# Entry
Amino acid sequence: MATKVKAAKAGTTGRAAHPRAGRGAGKAVSGFKGSAKHTAVVVEEARRAGLLAGERTEHVSFRAPKALLEAAQRETGIMSPTELGILALATLAQPDPAVEYLKKSYGVLGTDHKLEI
# Structure
């Protein structure tokens, strides 16, 4: 079945507009309504770090197993693949404070700690 593509607006590059182009363009990331508190925290931390500022200019496209996508949607409550992808990237882009603590404290015990052998 063929999909009709709207003609490009005057003053654009002359390429035909994608049927979904502009849908949500310039909109702040606010569609995160997952039940997990972690989801909101990750997005807020990414926003504070400036990772969500500016326009969405980069295009990311990949294929994923359906079961993985559905599990992520169930876990987060996010149905939009775009918003889900942004959450995944925000999660990967920020350091985990627990990891830093574990790295610093690795092999260090308190002065009064005694190992029983």
About this structure: The first helix runs from residue 37 to 48. The chain has four helices and no strands. Confidence is low (pLDDT under 50) at residues 1-34. Helices lie at 37-48, 66-76, 81-93, 97-105.
